[in-house]
Write a structure and sequence with these properties.
This protein is an all-alpha fold and 81 residues long. The chain is built from 4 helices and no strands.
Length: 81
């Protein structure tokens, strides 16, 4: 969550919950330039956990554009199944 809050402060986004798909896409693309795919996945999982621990529902698999972006990040970094 620390990385997400840092991203929000750098981009001027006020983090409000539940977090929308557009913000998660921007965060994923921004962070993927700095870390490996697996770390990007871990950050998204942490955001999902944070939501559930604060009684917000966040179904990342329902965000189709986010899933395509994450798949593209995976491929661009040379990670294949």
């Amino acid at each position: 969550m620390r990385q997400f809050y840092f991203f929000c402060s750098q981009t001027g986004i006020a983090p409000s919950f539940p977090i929308g798909e557009d913000i998660l896409i921007n965060f994923s693309v921004c962070i993927a330039r700095l870390v490996q795919y697996s770390t990007t996945e871990n950050y998204l999982s942490a955001i999902k956990y944070y939501h559930s621990s604060h009684s917000y529902a966040l179904n990342l698999s329902a965000f189709l554009r986010l899933q395509l972006i994450v798949r593209g990040i995976k491929r661009s970094q040379g990670v294949f199944p």
